[in-house]
Q: What sequence folds into this?
């Protein structure tokens, strides 16, 4: 998306979020000394005390590293967006989405409670959905945003199940307690927890085979891609795995799942990346590669691997955010992101080019950049792994490909070719759009040359959080002497140079080979189409639109459910005796039934009303006989009103058609009647619990000062029920009033 | 006496359901009235039947004298009757509106919300 | 309905039924009666009026629109429920005041429960009359 007006920023709406993010960054930076000294900061308050769930937050090395990356890169990205989307009519919305996402992400990495963690997890899913679909006028944008939401949302559901299972297994939802207790590995539910947590983490972090949503998420404006795919969204899964590392790692299931999926993702993504001709797509796949590498490293246990994880996490966030922002600059300056069209930008966009060079060299892993240190540590970690050849091989291949991609993406457009056939003449961007790439690129360089402070402030505390001991951290330095990792580095450079030199023919070959793999993205579309087709088929079947069918289905289900339940449970039928039988009630019951049957058989409306009235009055007599004068009076009055109202309505309504025998309806109604009788009989066969009634009888006069127990129940003991009931009556009257007085229908 | 009423209630419910399944709204409403009567009676009967002793506390006493009818189902049924009346009146008005607007009382001909799919 | 007898009789019956319905309401806590029955009985008086002399006359006699009465009743019931907040009891807990109570007698009992029952009375009375009047007028 290109700038849409000649404004250079968005005024207050542009700058406020930047200040907020910067303040957060400053706050977290101020915590560095305490965390570096080995402290773990906690803050909590009760949330759902009955469930033992707390609003608990925790700040240790791991959280702090993430929090600093999120707030720091967030600051730069927000500043960048202010210029990139200057004058965008919906900038306020954009800033709101991005800031909410930033806060959700911070909450996620700070949460110290499984349920709280999940809430923030889902918040990041939702806000990233809004961000990816920000250009909602574009069909593609909406589709891709929805895809990201579905995939990560489905993972989120599995994740929730995993968290609940974990909470049950550990007997607590507090993350620090679970880690301190450290007894999940021996629990019977361990495998289940692992599978479900992996399902959540690996979908969120886009590992093969559910990687396809991430490159599609590039439909978002470039600063969003820079933010989501460098430090945040996709790293949420990584963060989760890292957070759970102390409690879950070390078993064959953990090691092999993460190693194999991570390696597969890293290699597959690097190959895909080299194949892309769109700069942003190429970067998207390098993000996948980085995620694969991080997953792979988390599969291991050694101090080297953990140090490599902490370092590469920072390295990648720095250079990837810088490169995305650089691509945004190129896009905004030239109007294209196609590799083939770009060239010779170095002269007109010196600062962008410089920042791009620093970031790209870090990504390529060249000395003296932080990327080099990260790569050396990765190799050292790989050599300490259970399967050194597999891990190191995958890493060498992935890094060599990364080296080639760095050349293609970040060096070639600036230093090779000519600017001749560009859509627009390139021009350097504003300082807001330069601050991000320059600061991030320079940071990567400085930390490479002077790794000491970074090690002290973030890497060692992170390793301490992961392994429980700061002494496990390996030293960050450019020169380890001549050793195996250095040799692997040299091999990487050689392979990378060769790949870069041959990247054009290679691209063609890759396009052909990878084209033969199943296209999961299109498979996703087919899956959705199939789901929709099934829904349509099912809706057409179930929702025929015929009211009689719905009614028959409803009553049939009622009868079926009642009968099946009663037959399955056995019927405690009472002995059917004629003790206490008397003729008066029997006659009244017969009258009641006769009234009903009369309504059934007649086609005269007057006869039907008479039948209704007869039946109702008979029931009122039943109430009277069995000691319920209040109910009897109410029934009598209501029955009178029913007859009056029906009589009024019948003046204007058509005559009844002659009744005809309907066998289907007869079967259903006999089934309903039989099940009601059986149910009532089996209720009568059970002993009656009179404790409530006894309480009401005993308390009615002494406590509630009333002699009519029924009335006392209505207006005192169960007054809140009555309150709801009179509200229903009032609403029914108002609705009828609205129906009759409201818009005049076509009167016939 | 209760089992006898249990069977009568079932009979009334069967008649009510048969009416409601007729497809004509007027018979449906008649069925609705009968069904709510049957439901009320079912609740009343399941609280057991005690002839001739309403749940009242005599003047000067603090509790009912001897066994009286179960007060709880009476309270439930009393409000249910009034609510049933509200529902019935609303359904009747709705039927009338349907007649003036759609010109039919056949439920299956009312297809504004779910028109016939023409394929 | 043009019936002279009904028309004349109604003149007295409406008032009589109204008084009787209030009697039923007030004694309801101790004898058969109460808000539901009272409301229904009171409504029948005005329905008779509407049938004999038309709903216009009935509405005139009622002064307030019946739907307003129903809402006032709902408000009264809510108010009765909130009275318990004064003593810190739960919503709808009965609050009692016995005027002139002495040993063995409770005097004149005034209570939030009575206010609640009056609310029930008004809701039933108002809702039934709303339904009947509207149907008489629009059908």
A:
């Amino acid at each position: 998306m290109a700038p849409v007006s000649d404004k250079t920023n968005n005024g207050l709406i542009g700058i406020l979020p930047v200040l907020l993010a910067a303040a957060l960054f400053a706050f977290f930076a101020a915590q560095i000394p305490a965390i570096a000294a080995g402290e773990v900061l906690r803050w909590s308050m009760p949330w759902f005390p009955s469930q033992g769930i707390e609003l608990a937050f925790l700040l240790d090395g791991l959280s702090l590293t993430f929090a600093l990356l999120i707030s720091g890169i967030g600051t730069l990205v927000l500043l960048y967006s202010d210029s990139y989307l200057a004058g965008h009519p919906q900038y306020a919305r954009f800033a709101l989405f991005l800031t909410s996402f930033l806060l959700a992400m911070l909450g996620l990495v700070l949460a110290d409670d499984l349920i709280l963690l999940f809430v923030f997890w889902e918040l990041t899913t939702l806000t990233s959905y809004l961000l990816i679909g920000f250009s909602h006028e574009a069909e593609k944008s909406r589709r891709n945003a929805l895809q990201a939401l579905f995939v990560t949302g489905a993972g989120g559901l599995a994740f929730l199940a995993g968290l609940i299972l974990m909470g049950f297994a550990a007997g607590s939802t507090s993350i620090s307690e679970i880690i301190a207790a450290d007894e999940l590995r021996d629990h019977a539910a361990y495998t289940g927890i692992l599978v479900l947590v992996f399902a959540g983490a690996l979908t969120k972090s886009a590992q093969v085979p559910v990687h396809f949503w991430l490159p599609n998420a590039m439909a978002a404006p470039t600063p969003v891609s820079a933010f989501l795919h460098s430090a945040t969204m996709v790293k949420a899964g990584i963060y989760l795995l890292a957070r759970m590392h102390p409690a879950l790692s070390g078993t064959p299931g953990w090691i092999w799942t993460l190693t194999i999926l991570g390696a597969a993702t890293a290699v597959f993504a690097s190959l895909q990346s080299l194949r892309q001709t769109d700069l942003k797509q190429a970067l998207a796949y390098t993000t996948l590669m980085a995620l694969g590498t991080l997953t792979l490293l988390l599969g291991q246990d050694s101090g080297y691997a953990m140090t490599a994880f902490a370092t590469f996490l920072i390295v990648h966030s720095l250079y990837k955010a810088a490169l995305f922002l650089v691509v945004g600059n190129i896009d905004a300056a030239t109007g294209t992101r196609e590799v083939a069209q770009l060239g010779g930008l170095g002269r007109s966009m010196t600062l962008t080019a410089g920042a791009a060079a620093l970031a790209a060299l870090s990504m390529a892993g060249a000395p003296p950049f932080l990327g080099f240190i990260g790569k050396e540590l990765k190799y050292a970690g790989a050599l300490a792994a259970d399967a050194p050849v597999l891990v190191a091989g995958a890493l060498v291949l992935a890094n060599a490909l990364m080296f080639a991609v760095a050349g293609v993406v970040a060096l070639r457009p600036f230093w090779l070719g000519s600017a001749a056939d560009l859509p627009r003449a390139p021009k350097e961007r504003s300082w807001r759009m330069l601050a991000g790439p320059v600061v991030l690129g320079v940071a990567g360089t400085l930390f490479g040359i002077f790794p000491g402070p970074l090690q002290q402030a973030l890497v060692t505390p992170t390793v301490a959080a992961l392994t429980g001991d700061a002494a496990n951290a390996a030293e960050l330095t450019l020169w380890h002497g001549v050793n195996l990792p250095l040799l692997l580095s040299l091999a990487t450079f050689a392979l990378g140079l060769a790949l870069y030199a041959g990247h054009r023919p290679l691209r063609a070959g890759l396009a052909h080979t990878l084209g033969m793999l199943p296209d999961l993205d299109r498979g996703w579309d087919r899956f959705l189409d199939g789901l929709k087709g099934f829904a349509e088929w099912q809706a057409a079947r179930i929702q025929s639109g015929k009211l009689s069918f719905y009614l028959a289905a409803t009553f049939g289900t009622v009868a079926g459910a009642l009968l099946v339940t009663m037959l399955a449970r056995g019927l405690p039928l009472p002995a059917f005796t004629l003790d206490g039988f008397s003729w008066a009630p029997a006659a009244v019951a017969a009258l009641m039934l006769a009234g009903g049957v009369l309504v059934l058989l007649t086609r005269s409306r007057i006869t039907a009303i008479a039948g209704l009235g007869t039946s109702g009055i008979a029931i009122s007599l039943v109430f009277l006989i069995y000691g319920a004068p209040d109910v009897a009076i109410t029934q009598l009055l209501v029955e009178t009103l029913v007859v009056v109202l029906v009589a009024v309505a019948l003046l204007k309504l058509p005559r009844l058609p002659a009744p005809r025998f309907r066998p289907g309806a007869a079967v259903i109604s006999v089934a309903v009647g039989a099940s009601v009788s059986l149910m009532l009989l089996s209720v009568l066969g059970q002993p009656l619990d009179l404790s409530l009634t006894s309480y009401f009888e005993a308390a009615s006069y002494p406590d509630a000062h009333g002699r009519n127990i029924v009335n006392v129940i209505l207006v005192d003991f169960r007054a809140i029920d009555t309150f709801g009931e009179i509200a229903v009556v009032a609403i029914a009257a108002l609705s009828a009033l609205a129906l009759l007085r409201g818009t005049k229908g076509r009167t016939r | 006496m209760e089992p006898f009423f249990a069977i009568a209630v079932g009979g009334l419910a069967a008649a009510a359901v048969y009416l409601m399944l007729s497809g004509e709204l007027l018979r449906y409403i008649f069925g609705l009235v009968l069904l709510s009567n049957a439901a009320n009676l079912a609740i009343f009967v399941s609280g057991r039947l005690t002839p001739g002793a309403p749940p009242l506390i005599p003047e000067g006493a603090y509790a009912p004298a001897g066994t009286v009818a179960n007060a709880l189902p009476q309270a439930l049924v009393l409000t249910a009757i009034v609510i049933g009346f509200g529902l019935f009146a609303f359904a009747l008005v709705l039927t009338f509106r349907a007649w003036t607007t759609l010109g039919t009382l056949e439920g299956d001909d009312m297809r504004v919300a779910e028109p016939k799919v023409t394929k | 309905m043009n019936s002279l007898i009904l028309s004349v009789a109604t003149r007295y019956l409406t008032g009589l039924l109204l008084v009787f319905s209030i009697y039923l309401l007030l004694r309801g806590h101790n004898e058969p009666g109460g808000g539901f029955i009272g409301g229904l009985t009171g409504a029948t008086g005005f329905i008779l009026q509407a049938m004999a002399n038309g709903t216009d006359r009935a509405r005139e006699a009622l002064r307030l629109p019946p739907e307003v009465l129903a809402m006032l009743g709902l408000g009264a019931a809510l108010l009765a429920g909130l009275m318990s907040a004064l003593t810190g009891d739960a919503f709808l807990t009965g609050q009692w005041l016995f005027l002139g109570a002495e040993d063995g007698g409770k005097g004149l009992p005034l209570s939030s429960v009575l206010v609640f029952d009056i609310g029930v009375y008004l809701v039933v009375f108002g809702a039934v009359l709303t339904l009947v009047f509207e149907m008489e007028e629009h059908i």
